[in-house]
Write a structure and sequence with these properties.
By secondary structure, the chain is an alpha+beta fold. It has 13 helices and 16 strands. The strands form four sheets. It has a five-stranded mixed sheet, with helices on both faces. Strands 3-2-1-4 form a four-stranded antiparallel sheet, with helices on one face. Strands 10-16-11-15 form a four-stranded mixed sheet, with helices on both faces. The chain binds zinc ion.
Length: 418
């Protein structure tokens, strides 16, 4: 399979999305959570002196608890900055503050320092009841977009493909009747009427294209497809505005029209869509299915087998579904030393935990560790340098990974039959 350079690996993307979701869910007791965005090139000493000023201002906060919380949060931020010799190449983002975990007094200081995946261009200091993550969110949103047009004489569909999202935007029908079979004078007149109607339809399609693709800033290209010669009539006839026409990167013959045609266009036009995650995800799962069919000794599936192969260091690529609904449960008995571990569907995790709450061997109270199976598998994979691909359920292939294969499969470095 061709090497594809995405800006971020699917694992990095998954982790960033997860972290942002977590940060967004946090809320301070008062206006006391600090968000700090430091642009690349800004000297940290300058930032620290700004924070010192904020610190002295914060001493005037009337509410005693809020004042203490803000002062502590500022102090933590300054301490963290001192760990850096200089501002990292993409800048730095710091979140600090007390997060409540129950009644007043349950607040715990939390500190997050991250080097953003892309350069930060603005300085921002904010003290609020929530962490300000908008810049980061904007940064990790995939922007590159492809426009898709599937057209024949009866209908046209307009869609966009952006990151993992395939969206059908418009579906228009032409009302152009099929070709007439009778000959003679009336047939020729009928033909002319049909041509006129087709012309009107292409014009309308061109206007729709302008309306739906025109406003997209990061429009990387347009793919046009459909059965028969209509797509060429449409393109040759200058119905598309010239700025959009210049962006046509592929014209593809299709068997289908309508929405079916859109999926077919993505499949057949994929070479023009290489750096789009949607296509990448399809290819990764297809690669697994290919191995499953042709070299079954090079694949693993099922929680236990995948876990085993990961532990052996046999996994080349781990494909894991974002939708994987499973937990890793581990038990250890402090009395007799018995341990056990298993990956189970989330719906069974509670039952498993209960059955292990007492050591099966000696009956003493055992200690249980429970966490997301996604994190567990990723950790095993990273320990043995397997490539990890986190796959969404946006594509048919991604849904299949989750529903037919339990959400986690692996392609192996060597045959397991050796
Ligand atoms: Zn025991």
């Amino acid at each position: 399979m061709a090497e594809v350079k995405l800006k971020r690996s699917s694992l990095e993307q998954y982790r960033l999305e997860k972290l942002l979701k977590e940060l967004k869910s946090k809320q301070g007791r008062g206006t006391e959570l600090i968000s700090l965005y430091i642009p690349a090139g800004r000297p940290l000493s300058e930032v620290v002196s700004t924070l010192r000023q904020e610190y002295s201002t914060a001493q005037n906060i009337k509410d005693r608890t809020t004042r203490h919380h803000v002062l502590d949060a500022l102090m933590s931020a300054m301490q963290r900055l001192k760990l850096f010799k200089e501002t990292p190449p993409n800048g730095l983002v710091v979140f600090t503050g007390y997060i409540p975990h129950g009644p007043p007094g349950s607040e715990k200081m939390e500190v997050y320092v991250l080097e953003p995946p892309e350069p930060i261009n603005v300085y921002l200091y904010r003290c609020d009841s929530r962490f300000y993550v908008d810049f980061l969110e904007e940064m990790i949103t995939e922007k590159d977009t492809f426009g898709l047009i599937v057209i024949d004489r009866s209908e046209a569909v307009f869609a966009t493909l952006r990151g993992r999202r395939l969206e059908i935007l418009e579906h228009i029908t032409s009302g152009v009747p099929g070709k007439h079979s009778a000959g003679g004078q009336s047939a020729r007149r009928f033909e002319r009427i049909i041509e006129q109607l087709a012309h009107e339809f292409y014009k309308r399609a061109g206007e729709y294209a302008k309306e739906v693709f025109g406003p997209i800033k990061e429009l990387k290209g347009i793919l046009v497809g459909g059965p028969g010669p209509t797509k060429y009539d449409f393109l040759d006839g200058d119905y598309l505005p010239s700025d959009l026409k210049r962006k046509v990167v592929a014209v593809v013959d299709l068997g289908y029209t309508g929405e079916e045609g859109v999926y077919e266009l993505v499949e057949k036009g994929r070479s023009a869509l290489q750096d789009i995650r949607y296509v990448r995800e399809k290819e990764l799962v297809q690669d697994f299915l290919y191995h499953l069919a042709k070299k079954p000794s090079y694949v693993a599936y099922g929680y236990e087998e995948v876990k085993q192969r990961l532990l052996e260091g046999a996994v080349r690529t781990l494909l894991i579904s974002e939708g994987l609904d499973a937990e890793y449960v581990k038990v250890s008995c402090p009395a007799c030393g018995w341990t056990g571990e298993v990956v189970v569907k989330s719906s069974k995790a509670e039952e498993q935990t209960t059955s292990w709450s007492r050591c099966p061997k000696c009956g003493q109270a055992a200690s249980i560790d429970r966490r997301s199976a996604i994190d567990y598998f990723i950790e095993l994979a990273e320990a043995t340098r397997s490539q990890v691909e986190v796959i969404s359920t946006a594509t048919e292939e991604g849904k299949g990974l989750k529903d037919s294969f339990g959400g986690v499969v692996a392609i192996l470095r060597y045959s397991k039959e050796q």
